[in-house]
From TrEMBL:
It is an enzyme of class 7 (translocase). Its cofactor is Mg(2+). This is Phospholipid-transporting ATPase. It is a multi-pass membrane protein. Residues 1038-1287 form the P-type ATPase C-terminal domain. GO terms for molecular function: ATP binding; ATP hydrolysis activity; glycosylceramide flippase activity; magnesium ion binding; phosphatidylcholine floppase activity; phosphatidylserine floppase activity.
Amino acid sequence: MSELSTKSSRLKNWVPSLKGTRLKLYRLASRLNIPLADAAKVELEQHDNNNLESWTALQRLPRSLYFNLALPESELDDTGEAKRFYPRNKIRTAKYTPLNFLPKNIFLQFQNVANLFFLFLVILQCIKLFGNQVNPGLAAVPLIVVVGITAVKDAIEDFRRTMLDINLNNTPTLRLSNYNNPNIRTEYVSYVRRFKKRVSALFRVFLMKKNRKKEQNTAPDTVPLEDLSSQRRPSYDSIFRESIDMADPFDESKGKDEYGVSDGKTTVHQQRAMDVIDYQAVGSGQCQFKKVFWKDIRVGDFVKVSENEEIPADIVILNTSDPEGICYIETKNLDGETNLKIRHALTAGKNVVDEMSCERSRFWVESEPPNANLYEYNGACKCYGHTETGMLDESQVHSEPVSLDNLLLRGCALRNTKWVIGVVVFTGDDTKIMLNSGAPPLKRSRITRNLNWNVYLNFIILFAMCLVCGIVEGIAWRGHSRSSYYFEWGSIGGSAAKNGIVTFFTGVVLFQNLVPISLYISIEIVKTIQAIFIYFDKDMYYKKLKYPCTPKSWNISDDLGQVEYIFSDKTGTLTQNVMEFKKCSINGVPYGEAFTEAMAGIARREGKDSEQLSVEKRSFIDRDRMQMIAQMRNTSDNKYLVDENLTFVSSQFVHDLNGKAGEEQSMACYEFFLALALCHSVVADRVGDRIVYKAQSPDEAALVGTARDVGFVFLDQRRDVMVTRALGETHRFKLLDSIDFTSARKRMSVVIRGPDNRYVLICKGADSVIYDRLDPGEQPSLQKVTAEQLKTFALEGLRTLCIAKRELTEEEYFEWKEKYTAASSAIENREERIAEVADLIESRLTLIGGTAIEDRLQDGVPDAIALLGSAGIKLWVLTGDKMETAINIGFSCNLLDASMELIKFDVDQETSTPELEVILADYLYRYFGLSGSNEELEAAKQDHDVPAGSHALIIDGGVLKRVLEGSMRTKFLLLCKQCKAVLCCRVSPAQKAEVVHLVRDSLDVMTLAIGDGANDVAMIQKADIGIGIVGEEGRAAAMSADYAIAQFRYLSKLVLVHGRWDYNRIAQMVNNFFYKSVVWTFTLFWFQIYNNFDANYLFDYTYIMLFNLIFSSLPVIVMGVYDQDVNAEVSLKIPQLYKRGILQLNSARRIFIGYMIDGFYQSVICFFFSFLVINNVTVAAQNGRDTMGMQDLGVYVAAPTIMVVDSYVLLNQANWDVFSVGIWALSCITFWFWTGVYSQSWYSIEFYKSASRIFRTPNFWAVLFGTIASCLFPKFLFMTVQKLFWPYDTDIIRESYRTRRLQNFDEEEGVVESPEASTDWASSTLQVPFNMSTSSFATMQKKDKDHVRMDTHSLSLTPSIPNTFGRSYSPSFMDGSPVFTDELLNRPPEFHPTRGSVSSSEQPLRPR
């Protein structure tokens, strides 16, 4: 019993050690980027969560950083050192180091199954039992070449990253030296790290020399960085001394009466200012800001950043060179945005100005743990209070909230600010830029994923071949009845079973080419070159931004040719994201004249001449603009108005502003634009004599810019004072609080105190959000009329916002301020608590008016959408705009047309989930007769046709959220599947990604997502292909995408031309690669019939080694890089050709099997033609020696096989020119060259002089040409019959192009006469919604007697095919061309916009 207990205790002690070892292995695998199983991930995560002392668990907890204060006991370990370990600021984006490159790269490469297989073959051949005929070193050459090329490519790519990392880590910055940082542990530098430091120093010297050479070669007219300071933003005092009666508009002495006590009646809320300086402390004087490298920065350091320098780590701002603690940063390295953003220093650090003040500061920062959210940070700066004598009072703890507004993120650049002093809170991998720099989701193309099926099939064939050889050879060597028993020395194995096993593995070595090792490296080479072609396509180069189409993921170019669904953002993607203020509603009166693209679309749907109407309307707008400018010049001298930049045109507005319509309307107009000049977060910058506003969104810049143009100029903001000039009068407003805009709030608010000491809240946001917060008992008629006017603006394609206000008493404000301060100081759930407190004050609002901004479509968007739709691609628009705006943009960009019936899926929030499901089921059954069953979903997966153009679905984001969360996903997906167009309005980024995920996984289709903003990143990464547009909202989407383009219109060529080409090329290349492997390998197998299946070599081993590497690889690679069935122009003119990619016809498995069967047949011809000639006809060479040896037979078989394989690949190419034919000839010549040269060498042993002996016999040449003809004739016959009687779409178009019936694309549009019935024409596979009025086929009947008939009823293009092959023909296994059906209906909708005007008696915002 005791023995059992002893064993169990030992087992218990042993199990934890096994678990610890297992966890260590998991961590090692994670560091080596080896994917872990889900169970391993869960176990590792649970261990880290349970072990609170682990580094991973501590990283997930909030951190407290102490400055010039001792760490509390809870932050110390047993040795008195800081318990926490913070990562160094040194970052490494490179995958390898000089020490681990070789083992790690080889390890990662051999995760590829094919590489493992060929390594196994090399090992087999090292055993003489299996590979005694082959030199193991020679056998390893193909594997070494493939692995070596990949390693060199990885090394070059990683070396660039390493150089960038070294350059960045060794960037100098200023850090406070001789400062005792209590937050970090005593650092031990190991010998390995010391060695790495020496290596880094060598690289640093190399970079310095390289940069010095660049500087020497730089042109002398280059502007040095120091000279940029002359272009910095001018000081406040020098710019804005705008008024004669105000020597300094920011003079605090003038503001004390205004903002302090007024007539002794105003209650003053004051407290002693928070200050982190301990004025009783005595500094050592040894602390100085000295230059160090970025990699030496640690958490808890004081750093000083100068103008135009990048921020080395995530830093909390203590003070800046600006008197008000303001600094400006550029965040293009983080989100791609180039506009400047404003950041504020902590008020508690306003006295931290130099080294001495840093040394005398006493405070601590409580920070949230590291996270990847770039738009949120929660922390608090705390310090002790001061007594009246200036001593620290530890009984008082003051706290100031630290938010993103007080944080400088690593990678940002400091602009227009001389210096910033701050403390480091996150370094290295904990910084937000590094947490966001994780690799995007690994995407593999569909053909690459399906390639595994082809490889597995070949493995099965290989196994069967080796099994046959093993069984037959074992039986053949069994017993003594065979004659070889008396002449051979015996078998290797000694028994039948052992002989069979040896022969099996020898066969694996012999037939290894059935799994082509060079296929993977060839595909990688081909896709790299395809990406280069895309990058250098001048048609996708945007000159304005000097930006080409930039591939980020090079391995999915073939997926571009199989896209069935495109999900697009609207703002900045379909539109220019250049906002222009066009109209507004003030006190119920609409102002503004505009003729938008949506209005032009409405005119076309109503049967009006939109072009003539546009000319008339724009002529009127020009006249009204001149009149308005003249009136404004007479009203006030606004020197900031630039006439040509005025977008808001309404002379009636100036008329009413001047009081011609009454004092009430004049005050309403004044209050409206003054509110626009105050409620914002823009930065005013001076460019010459102009003021330019830099805002975080184009909408806000347009609103403040229009207020400036009409006379309400926001001059600048200094800390909490906003200076405006309204109609020539300068006013100052105290900015008390600002509640920023978020995607969840959809509004922003400011609380200001004017010169008359009134507290006013101004709120602007989406009309639905503002209307929910209006006082229900006030302005009922004004709210109704304004809502109708905003709806009219939305119908005209304009983006609408509402402006509202609320007057507060001083007691109401300070009561709310106390709650807001507490919420702002929260470390956890700060945003939620702020939103709750904001709702308290953003209520019972008074409506001021509404704005309407136009976001114009990008050039070429309607044509691009029409082109993609003609190709069979379904486009869904996912936007945050309201439903009416999205609908009208849909009409203006050709996504919607008048023939469609719009299904608006928008219900009240009070509608229960069962009721919503009933409504959805009713839509599905009423419009399409479907019930939403799983059987219908399976049928929908097989249906790839474009839905009939009779319905379009428009769904609101609130409804979409409920549909996606519940059990209605299948019904919703079927409803969308039946609609030709789908618009999802007011959707969040997460909802966009969820819609893409639903369609991609449920329908098993290829999806593409395109957007331009950070809110589109989730959608882009979720789709199979992500396209980012480099636009006004920055480059966040482009940085996360697989391809980056500058304009939406480039998408049509990227998909319809490059995508279709690359898909066809890769599909053909893969099939031909496996075909040639089958031909070559089975010729070896047929030889085993006459050799007792003993796995003996027919060819010289150099043939086997060089076949896939040299003799047959170039033609296939050229096919994958260079082949094209039709040129780019034809691909864009006939987009219906793209449908083959959607149906995946060129990569179907039946085509692959067809190529395998063809290869099987040709292997029979290649071997048996040669064998039968040699076996039955005795031929002697000139030296008298016969040509019946095994090596001679190998030459007889190899020569025609290689010629057939290369010629077959050339025959499958659609484009023959000098280059492709030259590559074919070069591949053939390499065989003849190698055979002739190598056979002359004594090293060839039995192969010696084979070429000179065999090439001189007539039998060889007879076999060569006879074999080539016999192998290729069936393929040639099949292709001829197929193109004559069952042509593909491309065959029809190519023939038309070659016969000059499809050539003159740029000529004038012709008229196609109505066709008459003809018995000379039959059906075609190309039945498409063809646009006859714009097609180049319209000129064909005039140019050629062999007419192309246009069937106006089926809208199909019918080729010249004999009538004997009617519509009931059955296509071959390679057939399957698309069948498009579409009908155009004309049912114009009716729009009845209404306008109204009411007055308001609310007290205006105008200062007194």
